[in-house]
Amino acid sequence: MRKIIRIGIIGFGNVGKGVLKAVGKNSDMELIAIFTRRPKKVHDEMESRGGGIFVFEPEQAFYNSGSRIDVAILCGGSKKDLPAQGPKFAERFNTVDSFDTHADIPNQFRLMDISSNKGDRVSIISAGWDPGIFSVQRVLNDAFLPTNKTYTFWGRGVSQGHSDAARKVTGVADARQYTIPIESALEAVRKGKASDFTKRQMHTRLVYVVPKIGADLKKIKEDIKSMPNYFDEYETKVVFINKEEMAKSHSSYPHGGFVLASGETGDGNKQILEYRCQLESNPEFTGSVLVACARAAFRLNKMGRKGAFTMLDIPPCYLSPHSSTVLLEKFM
Prior knowledge:
The chain is of the alpha/beta class. It has helices at 14-24, 39-48, 81-90, 105-118, 133-144, 160-167, 183-190, 199-202, 217-225, 243-249, 282-302, 316-319, 324-331; strands at 5-10, 29-35, 54-56, 71-74, 94-97, 122-124, 149-154, 157-158, 172-181, 203-211, 235-240, 255-265, 269-279, 307-309. It is built from 13 helices and 14 strands.
């Protein structure tokens, strides 16, 4: 199997830039091309970094460098980009994406499975830390503690998917959404006080919005708060600010969260499991996970596998750059 995996990036927003940085930290990866709606701007940026990277518009992916790309990493948003882009690219390329609308994952998986099977390709969907790493942790909790209750808390931090969804609302120029865990619920779980919390009892959502000139602020607020799968089940606060304040106070993308399980074994012995993720840069870490999954997609395809996968389907060794000998000696 060829050692260098050739990567194409589809979409060059925050996650795409995170993928770029992650590829540079993996010696078995090589970035071949970037496909973006802003080719001139991104081309100039790549030239300032030393050049050598092809930059095209997204539709040109099917005509330029297609045969040279081993894995296309799809970095668009989950609300509109990935549902349209994903099946189209999956028929031509091995793909990895971070589709994160949890309620729509089964349908997106079905569509990607149809397309990637048609093209004899592998598509790994919903990769990242949640869905992704946290999904794996939830499955492990359920397997190790069959009588457990598992809870997922996110934040405090910036949700890229929810921010992107808010930006799609008519009249919004820019938006940043913070997910905030409710501390009393988090501490109750840590103390083993299992409860059937509602989403509203576990998190609040805070959305900073830069409105377009002349926009209907009341309607923006109503459209965000009522958005299904994103805000309608939470206590959501919308705060309007100007672009200067957005740039000054909300230009970084920290995030994180917890997966906790509370259960019993044997004769009532209480067991509590906790996995924590604390990130200074959500898009950079997501990009790193996507790159690891690109390695797995490449390996699966070389083994003759095809169709859609999630991180639940992938052995950890397929994600790692290390040999099985090194994994046994250093990681077991």
